[in-house]
Automatic annotation (TrEMBL):
Occurrences of domain HTH lacI-type (ranges): 2-56
UniProt protein name: Transcriptional regulator
Gene Ontology MF: a single term: transcription cis-regulatory region binding
UniProt-listed InterPro entries: HTH_LacI (IPR000843), Lambda_DNA-bd_dom_sf (IPR010982), Peripla_BP_I (IPR028082)
Pfam families the record matches: LacI
Alphabetically ordered keywords of this record: DNA-binding, Transcription, Transcription regulation
């Protein structure tokens, strides 16, 4: 069995350096990290992450918390879940799905990934004693990941105009949140720059609700229209 000492010898560094590369890579230079990682690859060395977790008082578990109802027919959520799972697996972490916000702190975890957050939840986040990252833009200063909602809608609207669509209909989520304001702004500003009138429908956060709107108003929509489901 390949040991830490074997890796240190192969890389011509100390065992402490190898340990730092594995447990605290931010504490070593990029060149040194590459040297040790190459030695680990050459020797086919795989750290014992379970032992590391015990030593460092970690669980190697991250909770994925959804604060809204997940409709299992929505491809968005499945893509999101698989993306989180793959990303965590690369770092030897497991994830636990939490669908009841009241149970977020039940059981041990090293941190939280939170989706579906709304402004009303911010006060609760301030009380969490573990690090967390929100999936979705916010103006509270919390760490978050998201795309550029306004730029995305701007590009989508410009593309539709380049395809000579005359009526661009925006179907968004009926929430007063930063990410939704950004999406609508990208759509509205681009239409106004082209002297066109925005047409917006707001529904709950499920694609089947958008389908209802389209079916209910289909006959009233003019020719050459395109929908944005945001």
């Amino acid at each position: 069995m390949v040991t830490l000492s074997d890796v240190a010898k192969e890389a011509n560094v100390s065992k402490m350096t190898v340990s730092r590369v594995i447990n605290h890579p931010e504490q070593v230079t990029q060149e040194l990290r590459k040297l040790v990682e190459q030695a680990m690859t050459t020797l086919d060395y795989h750290p014992n992450y379970i032992a590391q977790a015990l030593v460092n008082n970690r669980t190697n578990v991250v909770k994925f918390v959804t604060l809204e109802n997940i409709d299992t027919t929505e491809p968005y959520y499945m893509t999101l879940l698989f993306g989180f799972a793959r990303g965590l697996a690369k770092k030897q972490y497991a994830f636990q799905l939490v669908t009841d916000p009241s149970k977020i702190e039940q059981g041990n975890a090293d941190g939280y990934l939170i989706t579906g957050a709304r402004s009303k939840d911010y006060e609760y986040f301030d009380k969490l004693d573990k690090p967390f990252v929100l999936f979705g833009e916010n103006h509270r200063g919390y760490d978050f990941v998201d795309n550029d909602n306004q730029l995305g809608e701007k590009k989508a609207t410009k593309y539709a105009l380049s395809r000579l669509y005359k009526h661009l209909i925006f179907i968004g989520i009926d929430v007063k949140e930063p990410f939704e304001y950004s999406r609508e702004a990208g759509y509205i500003n681009t239409l106004q720059q082209n002297q066109m009138i925005p047409q917006i429908y707001r529904v709950s956060n499920h694609s089947h609700e958008a389908q209802k709107v389209i079916k209910e108003h289909f006959n009233s929509f003019k020719k050459r229209y395109v929908f944005y489901l945001c």
